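lol forgot to send this yesterday, sorry. C-alpha cells for the thing we talked abt
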C-alpha cells in the first residue's frame, strides 16, 4: 500500500498534538534514547532535531530502535488494525480527490457496507468523517505554513465547495480559517 504523504513538519505536528488518527501510519524515533513511539504517545516530547520518522515498524527496529514501554507501538489492538491502517493511508494519500466509499472498498477489497461498518467499529467514525478531519488537518497546516488564500486552500485539500470547507473547519477547529490563521500569526508575534 506504500507510505503516507506527510512532510516532516506535518508528522511533527501530529506528535505534538498526540494525534491518534495517525497511529500505525508512521513512528517517531528518538535518536538520543533509541526508542520509537506512536504519534499519540503521551511521553515527554523530544527535541525536534533528535527525531526521525519511519513509516514501517520493521524499518525502525532494523535501524536499532526499541518500542516505547508507555505507548507500545508494536502491540496491535485489533485483528482488523492492518485493514484500517490501509484505509487511512488511502484516505491520507487521496484526500485531494473526490473519494467515495466504493473507491476505498475497491482499494482494500471489501464491500462498501462491510468497510464502513468495520471502519466505524475500529475508529468510531465513518470514512467520510475521517477524510474530512484529514482535510481540515491539511488545511490547518497550510494556513500556518503558506500564503495561499482560504479559497485556494479549500480546493487544495480536496473540498469541492467553500461553504462545506468553512462549515467543516468551524466544526473541527471552533473558528473560521481566517480566525485560525490570525490566531497563529498572533502567537508568532508574541514569541
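and heres what i got for the seq, position by position
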Amino acid at each position: 500500500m506504500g507510505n503516507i504523504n506527510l512532510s516532516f513538519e506535518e508528522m511533527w505536528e501530529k506528535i505534538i498534538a498526540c494525534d491518534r488518527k495517525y497511529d500505525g501510519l508512521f513512528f517517531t524515533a528518538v535518536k538520543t534514547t533509541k526508542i520509537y513511539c506512536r504519534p499519540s504517545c503521551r511521553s515527554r516530547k523530544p527535541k525536534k532535531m533528535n527525531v526521525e520518522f519511519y513509516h514501517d515498524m520493521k524499518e525502525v527496529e532494523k535501524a536499532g530502535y526499541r518500542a516505547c514501554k508507555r505507548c507500545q507501538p508494536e502491540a496491535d489492538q485489533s485483528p482488523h488494525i492492518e485493514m484500517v491502517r490501509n484505509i487511512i493511508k488511502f484516505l491520507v494519500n487521496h484526500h485531494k480527490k473526490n473519494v467515495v466509499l466504493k473507491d476505498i472498498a475497491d482499494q482494500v477489497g471489501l464491500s462498501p457496507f462491510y468497510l464502513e461498518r468495520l471502519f466505524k467499529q475500529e475508529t468510531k467514525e465513518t470514512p467520510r468523517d475521517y477524510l474530512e478531519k484529514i482535510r481540515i488537518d491539511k488545511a490547518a497546516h497550510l494556513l500556518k505554513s503558506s500564503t495561499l488564500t482560504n479559497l485556494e486552500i479549500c480546493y487544495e485539500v480536496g473540498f469541492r465547495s467553500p461553504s462545506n470547507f468553512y462549515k467543516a473547519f468551524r466544526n473541527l477547529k471552533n473558528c473560521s480559517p481566517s480566525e485560525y490563521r490570525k490566531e497563529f500569526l498572533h502567537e508568532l508575534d508574541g514569541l
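The beta strands are 27-30, 35-37, 51-54, 66-67. anyway ping me if u want another try
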